[in-house]
């Protein structure tokens, strides 16, 4: 009886192809501990960034709206993607059996594929949106208020999400190669035609478009920056100041984009180069998991870089954590601006100052100066009139005698 049960147990443990892979459980347990630390930082950092941007309307500028969407994508990756992936890793590589009921569920695998693409394609699409926003801000600054208002920026971000859904939805409705005998991954689950015709060309197109936009931005920044600043300065000083601030934002975006590309290079190298070598499957599994953890580190660091480079974001986070100094309150509240609509932004500078309000303020000051001039003139006139009305007693007697002589 015991022998039969043991034989049945052994058969059940080797009924799937992935159960025949080499045992890498010791390494996978160590990687899980590392992922647990990364998970905490992803939730904490991205959660803080999302909270402060949603709570403070003055922080909802066009670049921050796109940054908010990137943080939301990373937050989804942390809340849902990491737990699903690690539970699958536990069943595939540690338990080596279906103990949690995860790897044999078709739609759980599809959800993992969607969340993986969310951290790659979704973030890449949002970086393209951010590149478009920076392109308009640096190359076409006079059209920025009309083209990149709050509503248009939200639409641009929603288009990035819609494109991601359009890529992954076909997999949920049959266009996939899901097999319980094969480990769930983007390459193993999505149809080969889907990868070669849709996903890969779209990623290459996004990278090429981003490179072209930033190439044009850097060319303008190097050759025509002073000329553009002078032109804006002649029209509006506030916009000139905001234009110079846009270059600081550009540096932050370039750092984040560079970090995004660098974090994916090791994983792409493993999947595209090392898979063509004679490395054993155990080494490939370990290298794939390690390089994917590097990608997760990027999701934890992004909010820290954004907050470090943006003073208002940093002050908002410190205020939320009650760590800001009292003398930072003026810095935190001095630049409050809200992009309400495209129409209202037609008369606003990129830093949120209303040009019509500045004109009214100047007119008020001029009116005050004119009022002061008029009051001084009236005072002088009254003094003259008072001076002419004041007469001495001798003059009064002379006037009386003159009147009497005239009467006679």
From TrEMBL:
Signal sequence range: none
Chain positions covered by the region annotation Disordered: 335-408
The keyword Iron belongs to this UniProt entry's keyword annotation: no
Gene3D superfamilies cross-referenced by the UniProt entry: Rhodopsin 7-helix transmembrane proteins
Biased composition (Polar residues): 335-350
Protein location: Cell membrane
Pfam family, any one: 7tm_1
Principal location: membrane
Alphabetically ordered keywords of this record: Cell membrane, G-protein coupled receptor, Membrane, Receptor, Transducer, Transmembrane, Transmembrane helix
Keyword match Membrane: yes
Transmembrane segments: 29-54, 66-84, 110-132, 153-173, 193-215, 249-270, 282-305
Compositional bias (Basic and acidic residues): 359-369
A Gene Ontology cellular-component term: plasma membrane
Gene Ontology molecular function, alphabetical: G protein-coupled receptor activity
Membrane disposition: Multi-pass membrane protein
Record's protein name: Uncharacterized protein
Organism: Owenia fusiformis (Polychaete worm)
